[in-house]
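ok so I'm stuck.
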Amino acid sequence: MNGAAHAVRGIRANISQFSLQGAQVFFVGLIIGMERNVLPAMSHHFGVKTHAFLFLASFVMSFGFVKGALNFVAGGLSDKLGRKRVLLYGWLAAIPVPLLIELAPNWWWVIVANVFLGINQAFTWTMTVTSQIDLAANDQRGLAVGINEALGYIAVGTAGLATSYAALAYGARLTLLVFGLTTIACALLVLTRIEDTIGWVRAEHTQTRDEGQSAPPVPPWTTFKNVSFRDPTYRAICQGGVANKIADTLVWVLLPIYFKGRGLELADIGWITGLYAAVWGFAQLITGHLADRLGRKIPVVAGFVLLALALAAVAILHTFQEWLGAAVVMGVGMALLYPNLIAAMSDLAPPLERGRILGVYRYWRDTGYALGAILLGLVAQNTRHTAPAIWLTAALVAASGLWIALSVRETRGRSRS
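replied:
not stuck anymore, here's the structure
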């Protein structure tokens, strides 16, 4: 039976397709997670000099700018071409990533590899979360996003830890080549079983139109301006997305260097950053569903508070065990805020514009990687230390949470369709 022909919304009613999308996002998380510890900690093998923090961060800049821009493109493109075709394009773009890292004579090749990684992540992760929201009922959006982000970031943590150990035994290049190509092959195999969820979107639109809730579509640039600048709720949520990605950039680029400078081995660093991602992932299974009951604002603001406090603790604490504890708190904070920011956007987005509106949000959120790489790289470069970048990130996260606390009303139940 073709589920799209009936387009009954709800996770249980669409459990087969929902699960296949979950498998896809797990593979997406493996691809980005495989390099998060290995490349920064072993960047000297690619010719990056000590204290060249801005050059080191450039591989995240290329990733962030490309992923951010293509998130917006992917959202609108999927509304026209369908989710599955864009998902396929994303996996094809991933193939050069492990190949370029394997062949890289210098860090510039890694930067180019992360351009392709940005394309991959923009198209694939955007499509999996959008598709799972398409399949879920209105009162399951937080749960759907929570499951999506949980599986993705469990995979990020798993890949980071696994490749840390493998890189010590077999080398960074061979590890990332075999791990990356195997993951891509598995993802393409699963993709053959996936149905496009655009049928569910059209059915939802028909229902809301029949209920008198439909609004005329607006041009893409108008949507971009409305979401980015004109609407105070959308604007506040977008800046929250930027702030949390600046924090994740710190974890990706500078914390491995920070911990290495304090005597930790690559495997120990993998445990800290892997635990952060794994807690972030697993906890979203709870926090997304919690927000469907409690509302989005309280979990989001609480998440920013916890994340800011944990980042400050990283700079203050001194032992491996203490840093593991801080990583747990960071993961809980991310789990509270991350899925519920995107769920809040979904609450307000009309069905036929959901892909485009989520694309604008994800444009700003993931451009935070690039902005974070520039800002934090410059701070570390000028001070020749990573600790000031940690303190700056904690301050930015705290300010972002305050902005949302003061300017955003609860979005659950406030659909603008």
